[in-house]
Design brief:
Distance between the termini: 37 Å
Strand order of the largest sheet: 2-10-9-4-5-6
Structural class: mainly beta
Number of strands: 10
Radius of gyration: 13 Å
Largest sheet: 6 strands, mixed
């Protein structure tokens, strides 16, 4: 079955950088679009970034130029590099498969 395990969340200072990872199993990772979605308490979920199997990417306007999504298909791993963090980036970050069919448990990023 599909499993997604995120890691890398932390308490950060504004302006800092962080890399989130998501290890995937149970499906042919390289064939699937993957995405990062975040949700802060009381807020709606926000799609942050998406990447296709060939590495083409798309970003939310709120993170464009600061965040970078990438993948290593040989390692079945998805990444999100977060730079120039602001308090508004504080949220639970989820690794998600295409169609939002499968979600990881999330990893918490707090900027304070």
């Amino acid at each position: 079955h599909v499993q997604l395990v995120e890691s890398g969340g932390a308490l950060m200072q504004p302006g800092g950088s962080l890399t989130l990872s998501c290890t995937a199993s149970g499906f042919t990772f390289e064939n699937w679009y993957m995405a990062w979605v975040r949700q802060a308490p009381g807020d709606q979920r926000e799609g942050v970034a998406v990447i296709d199997g060939d590495g083409a990417t798309s970003y939310a306007e709120s993170v464009k130029g600061r965040f970078t999504i990438s993948r290593d298909n040989a390692k079945n791993t998805l990444y999100l590099q977060l730079n120039s963090l602001t308090r508004e980036d504080s949220a639970m970050y989820y690794c998600v498969t295409e169609g939002f069919t499968h979600w990881g448990q999330g990893t918490q990023v707090t900027v304070s």
